[in-house]
Write a structure and sequence with these properties.
Blueprint lengths: L4 E6 L9 E5 L9 H15 L3 E4 L6 H8 L4 E5 L3 H13 L5 E4 L3 H7 L6 E4 L6 H15 L6 E4 L6
Parallel strand pairs: 3-4, 3-6, 4-5, 6-7
Antiparallel strand pairs: 1-2
Helix pairs in contact: 4-5
Keywords: Methyltransferase, rRNA processing, S-adenosyl-L-methionine, Transferase
Pfam families: Cons_hypoth95 (PF03602)
EC number: 2.1.1.171
C-alpha cells in the first residue's frame, strides 16, 4: 500500500513537542518549514500564552497547532479545501485539542461575516497568491482598524 502522506511536519515545542502532523499527498501546499517555524515561535513565545489567534489559510494546521502547543488560548483556523479541512479536523481530534475552531470556508467570506478580535493573525496563503493576500490585508484593515498590540504574521510576501 502506497503511503498517502507526503511531508512530515513536527511540532517544535510546547505540550505537543515532537508530535507529527501529516499533510496529504498531492496537494499543492507548502507548510511553513520547521526552521522558519521554530524562529517564528521563538520570537512569539513571550507573547502567545493566552492569546486568541486567527490562521487565515490553515492548510495542514501547522501554525494553528504549534500555537496551541505553546499555550495560546484559542485558534480559529480557516481552510477552503475540503480534504485539507477534514485532515485538519482529524489531526485536532488525534491531538485531543478542543481550543481550535475550524471553518471550511474561504478567508475573505469568513472575515466579512465575523469581526471577532484576535491578538495574533497568521497570513500564509497558498503558493504566493499575492492577490489573495493583498485583498485579505485590505479587508482586515477595514474590519479591524487599529488594535493596540495586534500581531500580523506574514510568510513569503517578498512581492507585495
Amino acid at each position: 500500500m502506497q503511503n498517502k502522506y507526503k511531508k512530515r511536519i513536527r511540532i517544535i515545542s510546547g505540550i505537543f513537542r515532537g508530535r507529527v502532523l501529516h499533510s496529504i499527498k498531492n496537494f499543492n501546499i507548502r507548510p511553513t518549514g520547521n526552521r522558519v517555524k521554530e524562529t517564528l515561535f521563538n520570537w512569539l513565545n513571550p507573547y502567545i500564552k493566552n492569546k486568541n489567534c486567527l490562521d487565515c489559510f490553515a492548510g495542514s494546521g501547522n501554525l494553528s497547532i504549534e500555537s496551541i502547543s505553546r499555550l495560546a488560548h484559542s485558534v480559529t483556523a480557516l481552510e477552503i479545501n475540503k480534504k485539507l479541512f477534514y485532515a485538519l479536523l482529524n489531526t485536532i481530534k488525534n491531538f485531543s485539542i478542543n481550543s481550535v475552531l475550524t471553518f471550511n470556508t474561504d478567508t475573505i467570506t469568513w472575515l466579512k461575516k465575523n469581526g471577532k478580535p484576535f491578538d495574533i493573525i497568521y497570513l500564509d496563503p497558498p503558493f504566493h497568491d499575492f492577490k489573495l493576500l493583498k485583498n485579505t490585508i485590505i479587508l482586515l484593515k477595514k474590519i479591524i482598524g487599529y488594535i493596540k498590540n495586534l500581531l500580523f504574521i506574514l510568510n513569503n510576501v517578498k512581492n507585495l
